[in-house]
Amino acid sequence: MKRNPRKLKWTKAYRRNAGKEMTVDSTLQFAMRRNEPVRYDRDLVNKTMAAMKRISEIRARRERVFYKKRMAGKREKELAVARKLVAENEHLLPRLRGSEKKRLAELAAQGEDVALEEELLATRKNKIKAFGGETRKLKVRVDGGVEEIVESFRGEGGADEDEDEDDEDVDMED
């Protein structure tokens, strides 16, 4: 079956056409096939092998730089798409109650860190099951301090923690 190589994503032609591979690079010239056979010479082979190592190092460095330049604006684009999605579907997001808005406005007026308070509010609302054997809770004290509480618990099967912690593992040899 005939296929157009520029439409198959795994081909070099597609990657070059889509701007995913370097097309203009002097190190690519060395990989070209040559039609003139060269007589064997040990020194020439040694020089060629050393040059191949050096060229591969140079090419790897250039490919790394090329990739970083290509991905430079990706984070900003993703954030812009996420902001647009939130703006379009804002009606689906949970709303803050009036008392929460007033409290956040008062904190902002006092100059306190509103982002920290919003995080604390979010952690209190989210009820997430912990599979790692411990849960972390943040407690806000009356004096304004924040206290972190770590609670450990066993899993259902009891295989999360090792009961024989002081026993040493010994290989049995016959």
TrEMBL record:
Pfam name, any one: Ribosomal_L24e
GO cellular component: nucleolus
Every Large ribosomal subunit protein eL24-related N-terminal domain range: 1-24
Gene Ontology MF terms: structural constituent of ribosome
Gene3D superfamilies for this protein: Ribosomal protein L24e (2.30.170.20)
Sequence ranges of Acidic residues compositional bias: 158-174
Ranges for region Disordered: 151-174
GO process annotations (BP): ribosomal large subunit biogenesis
UniProt record similarity statement: Belongs to the eukaryotic ribosomal protein eL24 family.
Protein name according to UniProt: Large ribosomal subunit protein eL24-related N-terminal domain-containing protein
Native source species: Trichoderma gamsii
